[in-house]
Amino acid sequence: MGKLNQNKVDHIVQIILRDYEDSKYINHTDLYNQPDKKAIIDIVEKLLKVLYPGYYSDKVYKIYSLRNNMSAAIEDIIFHLNKQIMIVLRYCFPFTEMSASELEEKAENMTFNFMEKIPQIREYLETDIQAAYDGDPAAESKAEIILSYPGLYAISIYRIAHELSLIGVPMIPRVMSEYAHSTTGIDIHPGAVIGKYFFIDHGTGVVIGETTVIGDHAKIYQGVTLGGLSTKGGQNLKGVKRHPTIKDNVTIYSGSSILGGDTIIEEDVVIGGNTFVTESVAKGTRVTVKAQELQFK
Q1: What does the pLDDT read at residue 60?
Q2: CA torsion, points 138, 140, 144, 145, in degrees to nearest 10?
Q3: How far apart are CA 179 and CA 275, in angstroms?
Q4: Are 263 and 280 in contact (CB under 8 A)?
Q5: Which helix (H) or strand (E) holds 234?
Q6: How many CB atoms lie within 10 A of CB 249?
């Protein structure tokens, strides 16, 4: 291959550099004051070590040193999480109007409020592990679930992101949930409300929207969408209940879509595979698609 024409290279460089000079939002180049996506992901991985000591740790700690090592890990998370919350508060409206001292106090309060929720998150995750073990005959042990199930991994990060969302931390919860999405193929918005004993089996292609509410002992399979009927209203729909409510003891099989903020799936309902549900379903109902005809030629 011949040598590139340097004049053309220089011309292309100049074209692109000039494009940075207008007011497009993607030209925002305040690099040092932007949230650090890599640092937020690192916080997620450190939090998983705290949630599951002995499973996500870099090494196996002896019993007598576990306490000291985990103390150091928790303090490290507090420092880095506080730093990233401070950055996003400074970066995101309406916090941009606050003074430096107000932002510092706000970030510190948010950090401590979240860290105090760690025991509660662990309590919920214990029930999620139990639900996975009880609901999957292929599971050899709970350790296997913790170490290898993408559903539990996504739920773990969701539970972290959800608590941050509840206390009003902007942007960081969504970065965390999208990290889980890119890693597992499971998309759970941090604003969704999900009860105990939640099990996602297989998981790939699952979508759970922002205003979804899910009760206890829910089980869903791959390809399930809990979504909105339409997003044509755009930002005008912000804050509106757009996604369904799933009550206790509901099972939703693969490929099903349940849509709409007014759609309520009552207790003990079974939603069959490849169904499309846009209206409420009464307690104890089984929803299925009439058998399709197979043709062999």
Answers
A1: 54
A2: 50
A3: 29
A4: yes
A5: none
A6: 18
CA angle 120, 123, 128 (to 5 degrees): 130
| CATH architecture of the domain covering 192-230+238-290 | 3 Solenoid (2.160)
The residues, any chain, with a CB within 8 Å of residue 175's CB and separated by 6 or more, are 35, 37, 40, 41
Cα distance between residue 290 and residue 287, in whole Å: 10
| CATH assignment of 29-186, among 1.10.3130.10, 3.40.190.10, 3.40.50.300, 3.30.2310.20 | 1.10.3130.10
Instruction: From 127, 114, 144, select the one nearest 50 (Cα to Cα).
Output: 114
Q: Which residue ranges in the chain fall short of pLDDT 50? A: 1
User: What is the pTM assigned to this prediction?
Assistant: 0.89
Strand-pair partners of 257 = 225, 276
Q: Which pLDDT belongs to residue 1?
A: 47
Cα 37 to the chain's mean position, in Å?
Answer: 14
Please write the tens of the pLDDT for every residue from 228-270.
987 777 777 777 899 999 999 999 999 999 999 999 999 999 9
pLDDT of residue 191: 97
DSSP 106-150: HHHHHHHHHHTTHHHHHHHHHHHHHHHHHH-TT---HHHHHHH-H
User: Residue 202 region, left (φ>0) first, then alpha (ψ -120 to 50), else beta?
Assistant: left
